[in-house]
Amino acid sequence: MTPYLSHLLLLLKKLGIAFLIFSLCRLLFYAFNSYHFSDVSFNLFFYGLRFDAVAISFLFSPLIVLHLIPLPFRNVNWYNKLLTILFYISNSLAIIMNLIDVAYFDFSLKRTTTDFFSMIGIGGDFLNLLPLYIIDFWYNYILFVILLYLSYFLYKKYCKPNLQFHIYHIKDYLIHTLILILFSGLTLISMRGGLQYKPINIVNAGQYTKAQNTPIVLNTPFTILKTLNAKGIKPINYFSEKELATIYTPKTQIINNNALKGKNVVLIILESFAKEYVGAYHNGEGYTPFIDSLMKESYVFTNAYSNGNRSIEALPCILAGLPQLMNTPYVLSTYSSNKLDGLPETLKKEGYNTSFYHGGENGTMEFNGFSGSVGVDNYYGYDEYPNQKKDFDGFWGVFDEPYLQYYATELAKKPAPFFSTLFTVSSHHPYTIPKKHIDKFNKGNLPLHETIGYTDYSLKEFFKTAQKMPWFKHTIFVFTADHSSESNAAKYKTRVGMYSVPTFIYDPSGNLKGTHQKVFQHIDISPTILGLVGTNKEIISFGNNAFSPEEKFAIQYINGAYQIITKDHFLIFDGEKTTSFYYLPNDSLLQNNFVNQTLSYQRKVDLNRLEKKLKAIIQQYNNRLINNQLSSKKTINH
């Protein structure tokens, strides 16, 4: 065989091993996370090869160039050792990145992007939990060794270099150079994902399958590579400014209904509480007997959603009415210094004392920094807790039961009226509870179910203490969860259900009771509270007051696509076109996508109207973030 063909064949064999490893990683990803997906066909694994080609072209580009560079010393021993080292470096990086989501997908529900590495650097949580992750995800290290050994075996068997020295003539240089140019061109095409107008991105996985299954088509090196240079969002111009204002504006005039004017407000954010776990939503079948009893005396939102799927994304949504509509969490983005119309800041102007309590380490998820930026006077974290050694859970912070007792006594010190936020800790991986409570709560069939029961019990004990205090009867309690978590039921695994969270308002005076069946979302919490306590101001908020007449909706962003939920419809938009459209009353499992079907006149009207509204929201979001126009106060453009 001629030298140039032997080099090309050798390179193709090495790349073939890379494609095999990527495919095996995809199979492992699916095997360990199959319960998150439905209606999975073999075609998805075939379509994934296109995204694998992109990642492989980037990761193995040094190997490709050095393999085909037209120089005669490619046949010497030291040079082939260099090529071998390059192969193993690229291959090992690919395996490591792919295996991240074999374990981590359960927590993020999306393929990992570069913001994951930014979050590692926040606070000391990662270092505290690293030993536990090493233990809990032991199988990942075994899988890494197996895949690495398989690569080694195949490499040794099929990739032996021809070390015979060849004298290069002008003809040889020309042929080798031509091969280098042609293969480099193919590599560049692979880096783009094809010859289409734009390089493929994360969102393009949606063209091959329904939204819920796109993580199977993707691979983690691809999603990391595609977000490496994600420094900011781009300005959007779907509509003129005049037309945009008529379709959607986040300028919100609070409707002052004075229902609970002047009352204290306690906002309780429950860590990882999926709606699925709360028995009050499921005829008593759940893990929250106390919350169930409280909801009977509350105003309950039966159709509530989070706007993000991670704790770090929750606070801007809940405390500032700002949804998470970009890859990078707001608090880690270049826009995190923007002026926002924060709920605490607005209440301060009404005479409220403001505070935030979280039993986790100070600095965790940037809670302390962000809460201060939206008007929280005093942040209390693990550092301020008086019995750290006694009540530390060993990983995240203070167990919920003692922390909630501490919180009740702390509220007694606040001047009225006060607004205070509590963020619980215990219902988070690694799901630990105090030894005295082990086997006391329903263990269910997921690891976190027992901790859900423990947090519910902790709330029960908190209310026993709080009811004896003078501030209690003059306080309303707003409950929600930061995000959903693992699910058993199919309806909670869809792109709608995965954002379903329990949300309700408890008023001890009994003046606010009932159910709210319209769509409600985290960004609605701020304007709703402001209306209830008698505020009469204009703010910038992407949410709606629950008691105002506007159409209610919920919006999210995941895997590079935007989505909007209304009472009857669910639409997914990739930034250029609608890729999915469902009629929810007849299709809770999202089986019938109306896109590319022949639509009735009314269905077409609904699709166009909803897409138009979502595009207007995106344009307002991007352009206001870029220009620092997220506050009703006058701001200066960047």
Offer a concise description of the structure.
This protein is an alpha/beta fold. 42% of the residues lie in helices and 11% in strands.
Describe this entry's structure for a reader:
- The chain is α/β, with parallel strands linked by helices and 638 residues long.
- 42% of the residues lie in helices and 11% in strands.
- Strands 6-5-7-2-8-9-3-10 form an eight-stranded mixed beta sheet. Strands 13-14-15-16 form a four-stranded antiparallel beta sheet, covered by helices on one side. Strands 1-12 form a two-stranded antiparallel ribbon.
- A hairpin with a 3-residue loop joins strand 14 and strand 15.
- Helix 1 runs antiparallel to helix 3, helix 3 runs antiparallel to helix 8 and helix 4 runs antiparallel to helix 7.
